Amino acid sequence: MLIKLRSYATFSNVIALCALFVALGGTSYAVTKIGSKQIRNNSIRSADIKNRTIRSKDIRKGVIGSTLQSSAAQASRNVGPTGVGASESFTPVATLSGLEPGAYVLLAGVNQSSNMRTEGRCRISAEGDYDDSNRGLRAEGTAEGHNLELIHTFGGTGTVVLGCRSPAGIWSATDAKLIAIKISSARSSVVSG
């Protein structure tokens, strides 16, 4: 047995085996001995980090910047209000309050129907800003969809209201949804033409 083993113990096999043990030992040394104290500040580059290995919890808040930080809120109402009489004032359909100060993209959608052929108008409003949608309502009570968008910046805690009205007949609202998405900054301008 010893003679058979001795025939494989050539110089090249012994050197190859030693190189294998040194290589394996060096890797395990690096895994157990290299930590944050051994890494020089600002020496790790993007190319040194494997894709999809860094999570948001690994990054201190504010390091990346505010452009990637956002939050959202939603209010929805499946049915109501119903049986609302004619008025020139908007009747609240959905309200979203307690929004933190900052810039928001505000989105709203609602279906409005009436018992007679008339005009239906809905409005999304935040402080002094608003967006209106005007639809012709049919006498059969078939719902007409209103979609509204608004960009607004709240200086303090904010509230967004979705309201509707109709100058004649009795109207109802269904499937109302109000969404507020906080963004880093906003700018709004009026386009003429």
Description of the molecule:
This protein is α+β, with helices and mostly antiparallel strands. Helix content is 16%, strand content 45%. It contains two helices and eight strands. A four-stranded antiparallel sheet has the order 1-8-3-6, with no helix packed on it. The chain has a four-stranded antiparallel sheet with strand order 2-7-4-5, with no helix packed on it. The longest helix has 23 residues. It starts with a helix and ends in a 10-residue tail after the last strand.
Secondary structure blueprint with pairings:
Elements: H1 2-8, H2 11-33, E1 71-79, E2 87-99, E3 102-114, E4 118-126, E5 129-137, E6 144-154, E7 158-166, E8 171-183
Antiparallel strand pairs: 1-8, 2-7, 3-6, 3-8, 4-5, 4-7
Keywords:
alpha+beta, Jelly Rolls, 4-stranded antiparallel beta sheet, 16% helix
Structure summarized in a few sentences:
With 193 residues, the chain is α+β, with helices and mostly antiparallel strands. Helices cover 16% and strands 45% of the residues. It has helices at residues 2-8, 11-33; strands at 71-79, 87-99, 102-114, 118-126, 129-137, 144-154, 158-166, 171-183.
Approximate shape: elongated
CATH class of the largest domain: Mainly Beta
Second-tier CATH architecture of the largest domain:
Sandwich
Predict the CATH topology of the largest domain: Jelly Rolls
Mean pLDDT: 83
Please provide the count of β strands.
Answer: 8
- Helix percent reads 10-25%
Tally the structural domains.
2
Nearest-angstrom radius of gyration?
Answer: 33 Å
